[in-house]
């Protein structure tokens, strides 16, 4: 690149001041600045486009590798399935060789309310208090006394 130091910039500025003149120099400097800005934006756009194309190529390569891995897994599953089918057909074809297991016994029907006192007693007191479960029976008079509105004097 061009090596521009302070002394060279001052020399260019002095020559521009003499050649262009003090009246037109600000307008020329503004024009040069806008042209340099446009050039920088163009270069940045080109760099971004190159980076995007490189990332797109990387994504394509990654997609191909994932697709090949998926195909390999699919093939291994198919071969495993064919082996399973073979062993299954061998097991089904020779039922005399392997006796059938006894079917699981079905539990006897139990009424859901059986031992309900025991089940309610197994619930911790803190849970009953939090859930609002009554733990003691109140008589009618006690209930009236508890929930009667208080008189204001």
What attributes characterize this protein structure?
mainly alpha, single chain, 153 residues, 0% strand
Write the layout of secondary structure elements.
Blueprint: H1 6-20, H2 25-93, H3 116-121, H4 125-131, H5 140-147
Plain-language structure description:
Helices cover 69% and strands 0% of the residues. The longest helix has 69 residues, at 25-93. The protein is flat. It is built from five helices and no strands. It has a domain at 6-93. The chain has 153 residues and is mostly helical.
**What structural class do helix, strand and pairing data support?**
mainly alpha
| Average pLDDT taken over every residue | 83
Cα-atom radius of gyration: 45 Å
Give the helices and strands as they follow along the chain.
HHHHH
As residue ranges, the low-confidence spans are none
Give a count of the beta strands, DSSP E runs of length 2 or more.
0
Principal-axes shape call? flat
**Major beta sheet summary:** none
Give the structure's gist in a few sentences.
It is a single-pass membrane protein. With about 150 residues, the protein is mainly alpha-helical. The protein has helices spanning about 5-20, 25-95, 115-120, 125-130, 140-145.
């Amino acid at each position: 690149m061009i090596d521009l130091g302070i002394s060279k910039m001052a020399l260019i500025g002095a020559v521009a001041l003499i050649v262009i003149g003090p009246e037109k120099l600000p307008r020329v400097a503004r024009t040069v600045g806008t042209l340099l800005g446009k050039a920088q934006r163009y270069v940045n756009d080109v760099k971004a486009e190159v980076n995007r194309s490189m990332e797109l190529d990387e994504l394509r390569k990654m997609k191909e590798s994932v697709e090949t891995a998926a195909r390999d897994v699919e093939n291994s599953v198919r071969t495993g399935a064919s082996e399973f089918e073979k062993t299954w057909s061998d097991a089904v074809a020779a039922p005399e060789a392997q006796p059938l297991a006894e079917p699981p016994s079905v539990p006897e029907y139990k009424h859901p309310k059986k031992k309900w006192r025991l089940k309610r007693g197994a619930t911790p007191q803190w849970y009953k208090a939090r859930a609002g479960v009554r733990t003691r029976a109140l008589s009618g008079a006690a209930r009236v006394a508890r929930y009667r509105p208080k008189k204001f004097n």
